[in-house]
Specification:
By secondary structure, the protein is mainly alpha-helical. Helix content is about 75%, strand content about 0%.
Length: about 170
């Protein structure tokens, strides 16, 4: 069960780009939670999964001796869900998902792209956490911060776009 969990249903076993595959699996799941519940539920689910993942990763690292195994992608789920809980952070019905006016789909895709960028480039504190934090905190921490950064930047871009639209 632990391996199934930390590899996000074995999506981390993808031969190429397991982090991107894990994020791609996480995106529609997070969007569904936003559609059927709300941003608060998604945030709390992310928090709960992060706490469980830190303990599970610590146990895995203790047994395997491998720190930040690339097959572990539960951190991508947490980061992506934190990004989605910040932006779009709105509840829409299934029929409104593709409506560009509400920004749900645009911000979700933008959050995905920005999360992957921050997770790969590891600027500023994201990189510092990745380099210096040990165990599950190190594995999860950089993705959690990258998720929040992606959500905030996505929201700012969307709000800027809306402001530009109002000026025209």
């Amino acid at each position: 069960m632990n391996w199934f969990f930390i590899t996000l249903g074995y999506s981390g076993l993808a031969p190429k780009a397991p982090g991107t595959v894990g994020t791609l699996v996480s995106l529609p799941l997070g969007m569904l939670i936003l559609i059927y519940f709300d941003a608060g539920t998604l945030f709390l689910a992310s928090l709960l999964i992060s706490i469980i993942a830190i303990k599970s990763i610590n146990k895995y690292e203790e047994n395997s001796g491998i720190h930040d195994d690339k097959r572990i992608v539960i951190d991508e789920l947490a980061g992506m869900w934190f990004a989605l809980s910040v932006a779009p952070a709105i509840s829409v019905s299934m029929g409104e998902v593709t409506s560009l006016e509400n920004g749900f789909l645009i911000q979700s895709i933008l959050s995905f792209a920005l999360f992957r960028y921050f997770d790969i480039a590891k600027p500023s504190i994201i990189g510092r956490i990745d380099r210096e934090a040990k165990g599950g905190i190190g594995v999860m921490g950089d993705d959690i911060i990258a998720g929040f950064a992606a959500g905030i930047v996505s929201s700012l871009i969307w709000q800027g776009w809306l402001q530009l639209q109002g000026m025209m």
